[in-house]
Q: What sequence folds into this?
């Protein structure tokens, strides 16, 4: 470890009036003030070494050192670090001079005004031009990162000497920027103005392309991104550009070409999250589920690796000028838990229940397990709220045939939230005694009971299942609160409180209980539940089918025929239930209670019920 | 409330600045027997409570704003203003203890603060986070949460926390989010904030960090119910700690720590991550949590069930979870007003919160609202918050930082406090004992008792001295006000006759450096029975008339304020100040010098309105003194004196040989001119425009004719025995220093030098005026002014006219009647003059016939209108006598007698 000494950063002391080098702990020596540099100190042994010369000597030496030091070995990094330190000292010298010069009041008037006054002054010395352009390039880099593009365009227009009304295109301005040649005796610089201009060109083309991609001007985005890719582009940036190109092409409806770009992005060295995410979207679009899930798995893996700190950059590179990825950007791939959630839910949606269950359990472990030192953020706020993740996990487990585990997950959710649940004055028995309104309960609590019931159904415990369904229904049919804002706790419940979702939840619970009664042979009770569910949710055909079957079993022909006619009429109408967006766990749940073969059921019904009637 | 009297023990005294310590920055923390303390300076002290001595003093490179301890890792984190966060191992601190133990173990040594030999400068390598914008931070297990003043907004950042001795640089930022409100101050240069923001960490009971976070001053574990209610389902499900931020603008917001983790360096979406809980509308100085309900028997660890936040002016927020009639969980939110300004606060056990104001340390009981004696409180349901808080005084004043000691005695509380005077003390409260149990008196017991009594006396005496000082200040201010009233009455009631306090102004020429200056000397004389004390000031306003040659320039006034530092009855004070000429060599005459006495209420009363120890409270800068506007005071005018040309004339030609006056220096002391003049040598012609004009242009002349009778009546009393011309000249130059010589030589004409160096010639002769009076020719005196400079001629003319006016007014007051005049002829004269110079008729009568052509030019010159006498300076009585055109009237009246 390097030990810093507490010597002053300047290797010399300030002595007003006289300017001469002082033998100091630092190897860097020089006089105090450049403003007095032409007054050669009387007692100095080197009469021509003005402080400016000394400064330049040191500068050139450091530049050579830094140019040698570009590399990855530790020794070279150390060398580069030393050079950086040296430059800092030199800068400090200049700052000392600046404070002597009292520049502050002029700086007040803003950078663009300052540039304006410099560039429009009539007495601009021609030998200052290279330095001025170099400074302008640095200014351009700064303005590019701070999004002062208007100022930047104006500056470039002035520098190009073009008249007003000239091109406003930043890329064109950068390309036509004619930099004056450096003089041979100028001080050495680490990065010359031309290199800087090329970096600026690439960075601004990329930024512009990204911006156009976000705002939806796809063809312009494509050309800007191509411009960026064809310029001076380091590998990591090229990967980003290819990813953006892929996104752009897939939005334009060219999935195959998009895939090509994404693949070349992925081939470009270290695996790059956004490209994987975009690839998964593309495969999903193309219907290639296996490839989609594979890319998502890779994404999760990629995001679990924490990238180490990079070597300090000495030069201004394109990466430095790029914007930080924001959630709105196509190059945002989120966190590991978000990717994991995406993977798990896709598995559940595509019917890979075993995988889904595993991924959900992994996700829950990632979020809740305290043993790991690293903490992970939840899929919130863009994704579902935490109770939904639990519910989806439970649904996936039931679907994978792991009912016991699903019960555990539900138990965990309820126990964690027990303190937040409303107080039930008398939980079970004499609840009916109190005529007061019952407390409001979040819908996910009811959903938990629904899933528990389903788990019991899978385990064959009809009695427990029916009691869970009853509990669910009891909570669901309580008075909903009149005022929605219930303090800070109700932040994540907008998603599940939509009326459609609540209706479907009630229907699902009623049908589930009805099916439970059917299994235990209590058809009248089942009939009651199915009837209720049809009233509750007339659009839900599942309830009607179950009702139909029960009616047939109970031999109530007239009602059955009436219902059958209604159903026939309904099935001929176009289906529109796809427009609902239900929570994933509810969709899964609804898929279980759906009668398996509606068509055969209808036909069978027709033959067995109607024919005797016609006879 | 006898049971609330704390046992106060002084442990040590620390250096504090002159005005005492300011609240906000000092911190005191305690870990076992060790106390870590910072007073807001660069030093952090480590004090061993058991050994009773200061074991180490660390010097940081900047002001220390915040301290945090991480007991498990045995690490101390220090926020250094404008630098960053430093991390030190506590074992390192104890090493230096053992090293120092050998020197001296005398506890007395700790009394004088730090001894330089023990000062340990902190290694710059210990800095784990360089950030000049950091305002506060907190540590939580392996996480470091900082609040920084971003360019536009407050910024919460999350880091992985390094251990002391590990890789010094942080492993990297994990997350970042910006708060919604911008910090005060300009974004360019974020100033050091008056009030630092406050961070506080709230953990749910199940959180893994809750168990390891033992002694942090800013961490609390909240009950599940309250936690879920405040921070939402997700935070409870994730069992994630929550960071509460109290901002200086009063906002109280929270961030769920686990949602703050972001990928890469992208900042989180502040809308989704930051939730505003409340707005206190005054700077938040403290956030804490309390246990207000009694614990169930079987529960081991107590979690807080009430969140509290304190504002600087005493507004207090308390939140508890409760159930409404339907059984729904609802937050119960209450605001209280405690006496402010609150310097610091701490949460103790049993629902008690301690808060300190400049005058007292108070305790409020949120469990029972400080009113345990009334169990029938109607609206305090079980578990509810009290409707009113009654702070109980602990009789300790000016505590700037507090912390609840971990070494609490059984059934009581021990507070560690640092007073504004830099004294570290422990306050032991035995809140449970209602009646003091009779204790057996043992020798050790007695010793302890005496010690307690003594320190109790110490606390009381500190408080008494503070109050006494305030009373003294007020008494003094009242006395001063009384005297000021006496002086004002004396001055205002004596309109007739000599005033009890007077100020007379005289002028003299004196040489300052290389230039002759006209000095005004104001003599303030107090002949009243009262003395002018502190708060009185003599204000002298010098009003220069606008320059004649620059028509548009307004007259300029300079006011000098000289404090009168105790002027007893009968004593006098002299003030001399330069009147000019200025840098350009011009002296714009006439100059009016007005003197007035000013009594500043701000200076005398201001001190009493601001109690001495509130002065370090930054918010009070704007409070009581706003009652007094900037310039508030009593102003009593004393005198007004006009300095005109006749008083400024110098007469080098009259100088007697034995008192040779030093040669006059040209006021235009441009060294180049002087040099050139010297080079040209005597005899050669000077080259300036003024001298050219003097050489080639004839001088300007003005003449005034005054009735000899009138003059004689004025002058006659005192100037008998000399000719009327000589007497007139003496009368004119009465206020000039040269009057004695003029009198001695009986001169009737004199050659003087104006302030700018040009000559002015005054010639007085007797003439007879015919045609004016039907009774025959009138005896008159002609006063002729002659100067090569027109401006000087005008100024001299103006001065003479001023005297004439005064004379005429005096004579008119005596009731003399005018002689029979041929008014027609007078009008004719005026009309003759008015024709060519319509704009400058004021001058008409006074300007006599010029022997040369230039005199006509003078009259036509529009600038001459500037010579108009200033009627405004006269009495209203005299003004009423004068017609619109005073100069005209003057001549008319001049021939009356």
A:
């Amino acid at each position: 470890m390097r030990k810093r000494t507490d010597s002053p950063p300047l290797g010399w002391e300030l002595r007003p009036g006289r300017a001469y080098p002082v033998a100091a702990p630092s190897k860097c020596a020089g006089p105090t003030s450049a403003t007095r540099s032409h007054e050669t100190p009387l007692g100095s042994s080197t009469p021509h070494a003005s402080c400016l010369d000394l400064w330049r000597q040191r500068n050139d030496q450091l530049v050579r050192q830094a140019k040698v030091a570009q590399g990855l070995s530790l020794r070279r990094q150390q060398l580069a670090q030393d050079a950086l330190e040296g430059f800092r000292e030199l800068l400090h010298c200049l700052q000392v001079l600046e404070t002597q010069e009292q520049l502050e009041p002029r700086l007040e008037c803003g950078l663009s005004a300052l540039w304006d006054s410099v560039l429009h002054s009539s007495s601009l010395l021609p030998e200052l031009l290279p330095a001025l352009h170099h400074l302008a390039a640095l200014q351009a880099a700064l303005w590019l990162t701070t999004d002062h593009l208007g100022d930047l365009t104006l500056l470039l227009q002035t520098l190009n000497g073009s008249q007003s009304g000239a091109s406003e295109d930043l890329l064109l301005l950068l390309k036509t920027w004619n930099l004056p040649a450096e003089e041979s005796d100028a001080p050495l610089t680490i990065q010359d103005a031309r290199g800087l201009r090329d970096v600026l060109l690439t960075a601004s083309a990329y930024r512009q392309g990204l911006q156009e991609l976000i705002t939806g001007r796809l063809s312009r985005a494509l050309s800007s991104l191509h411009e960026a890719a064809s310029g001076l582009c380091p590998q990591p940036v090229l990967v980003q550009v290819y990813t953006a190109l892929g996104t752009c092409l897939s939005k334009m409806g060219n999935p195959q070409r998009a895939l090509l770009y994404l693949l070349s992005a992925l081939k470009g060295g270290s695996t790059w999250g956004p490209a994987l995410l975009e690839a998964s979207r593309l495969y999903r679009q193309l219907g290639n589920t296996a490839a989609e899930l594979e890319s998502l798995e890779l994404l999760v893996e990629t995001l679990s690796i924490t990238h180490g700190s990079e070597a300090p950059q000495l030069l201004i590179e394109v990466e430095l000028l790029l914007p930080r990825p924001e959630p709105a950007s196509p190059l945002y791939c989120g966190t590991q838990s978000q990717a994991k959630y995406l993977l798990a839910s896709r598995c559940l949606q595509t019917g890979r229940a075993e995988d889904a269950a595993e991924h959900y359990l992994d996700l829950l472990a990632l979020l809740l397990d305290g043993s790991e030192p690293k903490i992970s953020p939840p899929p919130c706020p863009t994704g579902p709220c935490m109770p939904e993740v639990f519910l989806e996990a439970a649904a996936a487990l039931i679907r994978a045939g792991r009912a016991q585990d699903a019960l555990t997950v539900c138990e965990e959710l309820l126990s964690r939230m027990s303190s937040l649940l409303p107080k039930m004055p008398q939980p079970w028995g004499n609840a009916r005694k109190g005529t007061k309104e019952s407390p409001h309960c979040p819908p996910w609590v009811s959903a938990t009971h629904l899933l528990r019931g389903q788990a019991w159904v899978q385990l064959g415990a009809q009695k427990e299942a029916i009691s869970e369904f009853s509990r669910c229904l009891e909570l669901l049919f309580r008075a909903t609160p009149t005022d929605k804002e219930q303090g800070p706790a109700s932040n994540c419940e907008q998603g599940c409180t939509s009326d459609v979702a609540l209706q479907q939840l009630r229907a699902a619970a009623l049908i589930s209980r009805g099916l439970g009664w059917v299994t235990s042979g209590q058809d009248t009770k089942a009939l009651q539940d199915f009837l209720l569910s049809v009233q509750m949710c007339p659009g839900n055909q599942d309830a009607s089918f179950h009702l139909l079957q029960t009616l047939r079993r109970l031999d109530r022909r007239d009602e059955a025929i009436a219902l059958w006619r209604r159903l026939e009429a309904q099935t001929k109408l176009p289906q529109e239930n796809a427009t609902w967006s239900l929570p994933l766990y509810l969709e899964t749940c609804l898929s279980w209670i759906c009668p398996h073969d509606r068509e055969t059921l209808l036909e069978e019904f027709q033959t067995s019920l109607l024919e005797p009637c016609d006879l | 409330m006898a049971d609330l009297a704390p046992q106060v023990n002084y442990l040590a005294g620390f250096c504090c600045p002159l005005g005492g310590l300011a609240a906000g920055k000092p911190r005191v923390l305690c870990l076992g027997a060790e106390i870590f303390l910072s007073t807001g300076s660069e030093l952090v002290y480590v004090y061993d409570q058991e050994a009773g001595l200061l074991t180490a003093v660390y010097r940081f490179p900047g002001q220390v704003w915040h301290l945090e301890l991480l007991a498990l890792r045995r690490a101390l984190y220090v926020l250094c203003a404008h630098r960053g966060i430093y991390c030190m191992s506590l074992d390192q601190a104890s090493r230096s203890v053992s090293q120092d133990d050998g020197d001296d173990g005398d506890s007395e040594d700790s009394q004088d603060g730090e001894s330089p030999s023990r000062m340990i400068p902190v290694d710059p390598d210990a800095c784990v986070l360089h950030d000049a914008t950091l305002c506060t931070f907190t540590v939580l297990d392996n996480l470091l949460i900082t609040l920084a003043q971003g360019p536009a907004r407050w910024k919460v950042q999350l880091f992985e926390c390094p251990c002391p001795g590990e890789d010094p640089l942080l492993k990297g930022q994990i997350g970042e989010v910006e708060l919604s409100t911008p910090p005060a101050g300009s974004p360019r240069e974020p100033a050091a904030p008056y009030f630092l923001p406050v961070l506080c960490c709230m953990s749910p009971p199940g959180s893994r960090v809750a168990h390891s976070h033992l002694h942090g001053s800013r961490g609390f574990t909240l009950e599940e119910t309250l936690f879920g209610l405040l921070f939402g389902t997700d935070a409870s499900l994730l069992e994630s700690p929550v960071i509460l931020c109290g901002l200086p603008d009063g906002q109280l917001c929270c961030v769920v720590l686990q949602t703050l983790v972001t990928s890469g360096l992208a900042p989180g979406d502040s809308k989704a991550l930051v939730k505003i809980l409340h707005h206190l509308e005054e700077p938040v100085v403290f956030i804490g949590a309390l246990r207000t309900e009694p614990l169930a028997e079987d529960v081991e660890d107590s979690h807080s069930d009430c969140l509290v936040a304190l504002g600087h002016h005493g507004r207090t927020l308390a939140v508890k979870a409760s159930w409404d009639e339907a059984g729904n969980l609802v937050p119960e939110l209450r605001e209280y007003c405690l006496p402010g300004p609150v310097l610091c606060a701490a949460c103790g056990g049993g629902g008690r919160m301690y808060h300190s104001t400049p005058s007292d340390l108070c305790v409020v009981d949120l469990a029972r609202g400080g009113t345990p004696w009334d169990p029938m409180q109607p609206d305090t349901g079980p578990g509810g918050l009290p409707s009113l808080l009654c702070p109980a005084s602990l009789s300790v004043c000016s505590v700037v930082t507090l912390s609840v000691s971990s070494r609490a005695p059984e059934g009581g509380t021990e507070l560690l406090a640092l007073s504004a005077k830099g004294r570290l003390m422990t306050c032991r409260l035995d809140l449970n004992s209602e009646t003091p149990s009779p204790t057996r008196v043992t020798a050790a017991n007695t010793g302890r008792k005496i010690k307690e009594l003594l320190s109790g006396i110490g606390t009381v005496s500190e408080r008494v001295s503070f109050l006494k000082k305030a009373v003294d200040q007020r008494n003094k201010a009242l006395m001063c006000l009384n005297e000021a009233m006496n002086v004002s009455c004396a001055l205002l009631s004596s309109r007739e006759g000599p005033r009890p306090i007077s100020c007379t102004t005289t002028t003299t020429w004196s040489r300052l450096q290389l230039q002759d200056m006209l000095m005004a000397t104001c003599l303030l004389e107090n002949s009243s029975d009262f003395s002018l004390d502190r708060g009185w000031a003599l204000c002298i306003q010098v009003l220069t008339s606008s320059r004649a040659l620059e028509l548009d320039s307004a007259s300029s006034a300079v006011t000098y304020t000289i404090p009168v530092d105790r002027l007893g009855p009968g004593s006098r004070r002299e003030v001399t100040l330069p009147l000019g000429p200025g840098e350009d060599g011009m002296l714009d005459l006439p100059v009016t010098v007005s003197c007035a006495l000013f009594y500043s209420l701000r200076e005398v009363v201001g001190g009493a309105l601001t109690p001495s120890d509130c002065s370090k409270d930054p918010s009070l800068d704007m409070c009581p003194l706003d009652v007094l506007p900037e310039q508030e005071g009593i102003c009593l005018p004393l005198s007004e004196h006009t300095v005109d040309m006749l008083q400024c004339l110098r007469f080098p030609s009259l100088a007697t040989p034995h008192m040779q006056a030093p040669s006059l220096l040209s006021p235009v002391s441009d060294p180049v001119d002087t040099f050139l003049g010297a080079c040209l040598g005597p005899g050669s012609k000077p080259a300036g425009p003024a001298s050219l004009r003097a050489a080639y242009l004839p001088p300007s002349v003005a003449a005034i004719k005054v009735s000899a009778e009138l003059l004689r009546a004025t002058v006659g009393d005192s100037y008998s025995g000399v000719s009327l011309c000589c007497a007139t000249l003496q009368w004119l130059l009465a206020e000039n220093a040269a009057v004695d010589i003029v009198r001695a030589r009986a001169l009737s004409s004199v050659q003087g030098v104006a302030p700018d160096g040009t000559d002015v010639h005054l010639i007085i002769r007797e003439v007879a005026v015919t045609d004016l009076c039907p009774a025959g020719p009138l005896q008159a005196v002609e006063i002729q002014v002659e100067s090569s400079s027109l401006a000087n001629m005008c100024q001299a003319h103006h001065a003479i006219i001023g005297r004439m006016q005064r004379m005429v007014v005096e004579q008119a007051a005596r009731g003399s009647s005018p002689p029979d005049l041929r008014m027609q002829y007078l009008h004719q004269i005026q009309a003759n003059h008015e024709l060519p110079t319509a704009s400058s008729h004021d001058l008409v009568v006074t300007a006599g016939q010029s022997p040369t052509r230039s005199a006509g030019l003078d009259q036509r010159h529009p600038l001459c209108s500037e010579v108009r006498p200033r009627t405004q300076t006269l009495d209203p009585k005299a003004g009423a006598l004068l017609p619109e055109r005073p100069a005209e009237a003057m001549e008319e009246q001049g021939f009356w007698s």
